[in-house]
């Protein structure tokens, strides 16, 4: 190990980490060339490919980039739309809204997107990200300021395989499967009224949370580079404790090509969430007779990404490549990369829970910059594999509990729901407690689901 491992956890969460032996992956990541300060695990940490999910690593420019440190769903992320309505105002039409959104957004494995794009369109998406959708009437200019990095990294199709392009062409504007979802939510509690007011949040407000990523496009980019880097690591004589950590020097030809392809997939994902948001906004406008611009984007954060940021290490500010895999950027007030909209407050940090409990909106702290490179968890974190979740899932009991909580649900199949039952995840409240007690972020609001679309 070149650095120590640092895990943010309660005793309860630590017990699961020990049981799953996820700490071994923290130790393995600590062996990567160029890693700085710590190999970090967030409280939602669980076993992943090479890196744990919920893992963070900052690598100096002379070090390496590892596709396993980003993950297969490049820029899987989450965004939240805010309505100027209280739940009581939509309660009688909640299921109408749910059904109309479900009809408009393709969900499930391999589903094609709502729009059709050409190869030239995909070329522009890979470069422009969110702006591609906005210039075509799918969103507002203000959405850029409410998206991490304005919804764009320095990517292109130059180093993306034809197979990845073929997979990506039909899927733009689709939700996908797995743990991806669209939730209609109610703001159940406000913890910081001053920040909430500045962000446009209020008690009992209706919100829509969207969780999806780069679909087959990003998955194929990851697969392509995982395979090629198995040999590249040997080429550069990089010794690894786990072949799944296959990597290349950041400044090598192969490293630069992966970062370009990864950024293209990240731009695709941001654009995908933007397009889905647009169609959801149109549904809301039609159901509740609102104006399009009354439906504000609170923020959009990436969960699986590697990007260059400036951080202080040993008293010096240096440029590092931050790998966040199942982890969320959490920059506080006055951070230089924040847009004018959030410079005075810091950015909203969106942490979704499982479909039966709650999600949180947090605010990052200066302590997070010092301790975790401005990073917090990205969700509750799995404790059961999808296979094990399906084994214990009881359809009748599940739907009974959802009905008791007043939560409506739409999904392509029971199998897709069974994989994501609440019991498959850690308790989101326990995870947020760890984050707050570690002073990485503070609660601003808690949201609860009232209607869910599962991919």
Tell me about this structure.
The longest helix has 36 residues. Strands 5, 6, 7, 9, 13, 14, 16 and 17 form an eight-stranded mixed β-sheet that branches. Helix 8 runs antiparallel to helix 10. The chain is of the alpha+beta class and 455 residues long. The chain has one domain: Alpha-Beta Complex (tRNA-splicing ligase RtcB), CATH 3.90.1860. The protein is built from 17 helices and 17 strands. The model has no long low-confidence stretch (mean pLDDT 96).
Q: Could you give the topology of this structure?
A:
Elements: E1 4-7, H1 11-20, H2 23-29, E2 35-46, E3 53-60, E4 64-65, E5 77-86, H3 87-90, H4 94-104, H5 119-128, H6 130-134, H7 142-145, H8 162-168, E6 181-190, H9 193-199, E7 205-212, H10 215-235, E8 248-249, H11 253-288, E9 296-302, E10 304-313, E11 316-325, E12 327-329, H12 340-343, E13 348-351, E14 359-364, H13 366-372, E15 375-377, H14 386-392, H15 395-404, E16 408-410, H16 414-418, H17 428-437, E17 441-454
Parallel strand pairs: 1-2, 16-17
Antiparallel strand pairs: 2-3, 3-11, 4-8, 5-7, 5-9, 6-7, 6-17, 10-11, 12-15, 13-14, 14-17
Helix pairs in contact: 4-11, 5-11, 8-10, 10-11
Brief account:
With 455 residues, this protein is α+β, with helices and mostly antiparallel strands.
